[in-house]
Amino acid sequence: MSILFRFNGQACYEVDTGRLKKIRVVFGMIDEKRTSMAWYLFSSDGEAKSKRELANPDKMPPEQFGHRNEVGRDIPQTFNKKIGLDELAIHAHGTRATLTLEISETKRFIECRIDRLMTKAKEVVTFPFGLQQYVSDPSRTRKILGKVLFLEIAPFDANQFTLGPLGKAQIFIFGPAS
Question: Which alpha helices (H) appear in the chain, and where do they start and end?
C-alpha cells in the first residue's frame, strides 16, 4: 500500500545559537485531500562561528533568507509504507537527515531536498520542496547534516500557510534547541 503526501517549504533561517550558526527550515507535509497538515523543522548540526563572532556576546536575531508569500506548488511524494501526518520522523526528539539547499543567482527560488530520513514505519525517504529567496546567496548552496523534528498538526489552509506554525512550535524554530 502506498500513501501520498505533498510537501511545501514555509521559511528558511540562519540562527545564531551562541557558539554555532544553524540553518533551520520550516516545511509542511500536507495530506492527499489537502485538509490537514503537519509542520516540521529541519535543524542543522551547526557551524562553529568565527573567533571574532565568538568575542561578541550579543546574540543576533535570526536571519530569514527563504520564505513563502503564497502557498506555492505542493510537491507530491508517494511513500511505500503507511504513516500518519505526525510520523515523518521516527524519533520524537528529531531524526537524522540531510538537507540539500540549491540557490542560484538567476533563480528566485531555493530548491530543498531532505535525504535519508527514516519514518516511523522504518522507510527511508527523500523528498523535495521549494521556497522563495529574499537575496540570492549561492554560498548557501550545500548539503547540511541535521535533524527533522515534528512541530504540530494543523488544518490545511492555503491562505494561512505563509504564517507558519503558531504557538509553542515557534520556540523550536528560533530558540537554541537542537
Answer: 51-55, 169-174
Residues 112-125 have pLDDT tens digits of 999 999 999 999 99
147 φ/ψ angles, rounded to the nearest 5 degrees = -130, 150
Q: Do residues 39 and 58 lie in contact, with contact meaning Cβ atoms separated by under 8 Å?
A: no
The pLDDT tens digits of the residues spanning 74-107 come to 899 999 999 999 999 999 889 999 999 988 677 7
pTM as predicted: 0.87
Cell matching residue 99: 538537507
At 26, which amino acid appears?
Answer: V
Residue 2 grid coordinates: 502506498
Residue tagged 540562527 (cell numbers): 15
All three cell numbers of 147: 535533524
